[in-house]
Amino acid sequence: MVIYLTREYHMGNAAAAVIMLSWGALSNITPIFGAFLSDSYLGRFRTIAFATISCFVGLTLMWLTAMIPGAKPQPDSPATPHQMFLLFLALAFSSIGSAGVRPCSIPFGADQFTDGNTSDRERTLRVYFNCYYASVGLSFIFASTVVVYVQDRFGWKVGFAVPVALIVASASMFLAGSPMYVKVRSRGSTLTGFGRVVVAAVKNRNVDLEKLDLAFGYEQGSSEVFLMPSDKLRFLNRACIRRYAGEPRVCTVEQVEDLKSVIGVLPLWSAGIMVSLVMSQQFGPLQAEAMNRRLGGRFTIPAGSFSVFQLLTMTLLSACYDSYILPAVSKLSGRPARLTLKQRMGIGVLISTASTAVAALVEAKRRRTEENRMSALWLVPQYALVGLAEAFSVIGQVEFFYVALPRTMSSYAVALWTLGLGVSNLIGTALVKAVQAATARGGRPGWLATDLDEGHYDYYYWVLTAMGVVDFFYFLVCIWAYGEEVRKKPWEVEGEALVEEQSD
């Protein structure tokens, strides 16, 4: 898309990057609202169905910008307000579609695995998450190779028609399978319950928790297990106290613990934003255009297809992680090998930082090389490292959120990650503007100049590397503060100790 904007809408590199980052922010922030609608009102199936229609409208409008004469600027002419409106309308409908599809697709698939005991289901879900992202990677590989090649070879009219045809085919298959799906009903607004917890905690702020009667101290709701709130965020425990028997509208222990689990994951969520910022960089295709993209004698790799190396790395690692990599490591070490979800997230942060350092070194070398003489294959290592970071961090985050958040908030597991991606888009937009404004003073072209040789994109990558180093130490602090989550902490009632459930 960034190439479409620079070629057909005659935008500068920085302006095109800002539009794409802003669109990415909208597409990644809105899924939190899609998750709310899904879990509270519509259910996942209907949310996905409505969102798919919106995706179809957005892709069709984008296709029309290439098909209709006058829908995009004439050569050497700036875009008119009407042309920009049609472009933004297409992007907006696509974002609305993302709001429904992205947070609901993974948990909707997980809903289909309802049989088996707990350990079997956990193992099945772990494999499912990896397979899901492997399939997503394959779809992106197809988009970055076949679709981009069609766009490059046959033009934007044919190139944009391919996604329209694909969304029609996928929507038809999804709806055709409706009778076979397990459809979990929505359970009302969890967020409203969280608001009640906060209000009740403030209302009961003067209550001494140490003097509560164990028989009537905490509201249990419909739970068959007698639960006691954990000691984390102890102030919120006041929301579920029962000051007398039969007190109406008291929040339950489970509601309080659910809110604590959400608050508890937020620092770790924020630490993953830097990985998303690296993933959302828009300058790779522009670098590729300034390099030698010939492969062999006649074939030229499209500049927009280099992201396939990122996707291929992510897909291969996701597909092979449980089936081949872990068994091989276990065989070599002589003991079962398994990375915790937090370790996978931390490795992702480290690798993403390494990717920007490699990108800075490659760009510095490109600037010292005669124009279009340096092979674009030098970009492969940085793309591959981003793919590794995505495989470790993104899948780790989504699975961690899915496990740590309440069962009624399954759709928020993906929405939280996409929200982080959206925040990273906003940070990226602000960073691009700030860097260019600070470095383009006094008539200088700035680090992010339209002409890559006049700019210093390597300096920009070093800024990202420094931010990544700081983020890794912040992540370590968040891990230490999070500790081991205790979801349900039971009381000993009349000498009988109930089982305690924990997660990583």
TrEMBL record:
GO terms for cellular component: membrane. Pfam families: PTR2 (PF00854). The chain crosses the membrane at residues 14-36, 48-71, 83-101, 131-150, 156-177, 299-324, 345-362, 382-405, 412-439, 459-482. One of its GO terms (molecular function) is transmembrane transporter activity. Its main location: membrane. It comes from the Eukaryota. It is found in: Membrane. This is Uncharacterized protein. It comes from Zingiber officinale.
